[in-house]
Amino acid sequence: MNCPANFFTAFLLFLSVNIFAGTCPELSGEYVIGKSRSADFSTIQEASDALMCGGISGAVIFKIENGTYNEKISLSNISGTSAINTIAFESQSGEKSDVIVSSNNSDAVITLNGTSYVSFENITVDRKKAAYGNCIRTEGKAGHLLFNNVIFDGVEAAVTGASSAVIYMDASAAKSSIVITDCEINNGSFGLMKSGMNTESRDSKTIINGNLFFNQNEGGITLSNEDAPEISNNVISSTSGFEKFIAVNMDNAANQIVVTKNLVNAPNAAIGLSLTNCNA
């Protein structure tokens, strides 16, 4: 008759030891995020915490149930990631409007710091009503990040500067193989602002393809210190009256620069395409 009690006591002891030891299981396979009884995690940050604590032992896919998730997401380096062992966050329905990640607090809705081999697909990231800030902010050394079929709704006000770029990637460390494809990038100061460290340590293999950049105040795409960037098949549309608006701006880019089949509709822009200190 004491077996259940003894088992429960042993389980609590095991759980306590593991919690205080800071150990977490490695993740592998498919998981569900949401409020249903079958969900493995109730919030996206809860899933992110599990990743950062235990790492992964195989490819991981997080299917996010329909709904609005009012939370700030932070991811850092995740052990076990590789070209084979990747991590994906995507809507369970496959419809980007069914999953909305929204935050008007802090500097960004999603912050990636030293994160690699992670993708976000078929979701909406909303920061429209904030006074400033980024939908995505990437810091530190990062690589192999994919943003596919995502709606990014940046700050609606007529903002300026990197702190209100819809997607911002800083110059603190090199970033490689960043792919942004088939996304809708709205509002903000810049649609995408990405800065490599310097000409000796450029970011490499940035691909920006098939996106709609709409209603930015300062500029659509601005890249600096890039190696072999590709900007193709994008639409950049803005009626901004900002006197220095530049639709596509590249500074210190080199080696196999591709800028092709883009459509610019910015009647008040100062410049459609600007290339400074670029060679290829």
Describe, in plain words, how this protein is organized in 3D:
With 280 residues, the chain is mainly β. Helices cover 11% and strands 45% of the residues. The chain has 2 helices and 26 strands. The protein has a 9-stranded parallel beta sheet, covered by helices on one side.
What topology does this entry show?
Layout lengths: L2 H19 L5 E7 L10 H11 L1 E9 L2 E4 L2 E3 L11 E5 L7 E4 L5 E6 L2 E6 L2 E3 L7 E6 L2 E7 L2 E3 L13 E3 L5 E7 L2 E3 L3 E6 L7 E2 L2 E3 L2 E3 L4 E9 L2 E3 L2 E3 L8 E9 L3 E3 L2 E3 L5 E6 L4
Parallel strand pairs: 1-2, 2-5, 3-6, 4-7, 5-8, 6-9, 7-10, 8-11, 9-12, 10-13, 11-14, 12-15, 13-16, 14-18, 15-19, 16-20, 17-20, 18-21, 19-22, 20-23, 21-24, 22-25, 23-26
Short description:
With 280 residues, the protein is mainly β. It contains 2 helices and 26 strands. The strands form 3 sheets. It has a 9-stranded parallel β-sheet with strand order 1-2-5-8-11-14-18-21-24, covered by helices on one side. Strands 4, 7, 10, 13, 16, 17, 20, 23 and 26 form a 9-stranded parallel β-sheet that branches. An 8-stranded parallel β-sheet has the order 3-6-9-12-15-19-22-25, with no helix packed on it.
